[in-house]
Specification:
By secondary structure, this protein is mostly beta strands. It is built from no helices and nine strands. The radius of gyration is 15 Å and the shape is globular.
């Protein structure tokens, strides 16, 4: 885990961890990924293939696979959404996105063992600061009550599943 991923979440949809090698057997695969907040797309990386679930292929150059970085209007900080499906980006660098706007589709690109979306929040612009050198920041989920992220974050733990209608 790199410093900017200190407060990261990996988001999956049931079914997950199905042990299947078929991407379509995972609830997250191919569903729309939307902007969690308004901001400007500062960088996109696309073109990495989806990996076969259960086969972890190390990609030291682009561990996030296909990803989008958004500079948030509210704070000026940056959200990174990674492991997107290749060639399905709905936005371009420089676009202003609204909360809830579709960005792309959930995939399994980069260092990913199964389809999911990795999201993390960082202070530095990823176009300027090399991976591993940014300061990770906590993520806040508006309108969602529950246990707070433990002081210092989690180290590979699993947070209780929250359904879309819960």
């Amino acid at each position: 885990m790199t410093p900017e991923e200190r407060w990261a979440y990996d988001l999956a949809v049931v079914p997950y961890s199905s042990k299947s090698a078929n991407l379509a057997d995972y609830g997250c695969y191919g569903i729309p990924v939307v902007a969690p907040a308004a901001g400007v797309v500062v960088e996109i990386h696309d073109g990495e293939p989806d990996q076969t679930p259960g086969v972890l292929v190390k990609n030291p150059v682009n561990p996030g696979g296909n990803w989008i970085a958004i500079q948030l209007d509210e704070t000026g900080t940056f959200l990174i959404l990674a492991h997107l499906k290749p060639d399905r980006m709905m936005v371009s660098a420089g676009d202003h996105v609204s909360e809830g706007q579709e960005l792309g589709r959930c995939g399994n690109s980069g260092n990913s063992s199964e389809p999911h979306i990795h999201i993390h929040h960082q202070r530095e612009n990823p176009r300027v600061t090399a991976r591993g050198w940014a300061e990770g920041l906590p993520l806040y989920f508006r309108d969602l009550d529950g246990d707070a992220m433990p002081q210092g974050g989690l180290d590979g733990g699993i947070v209780q599943h929250i359904g879309a209608n819960e």
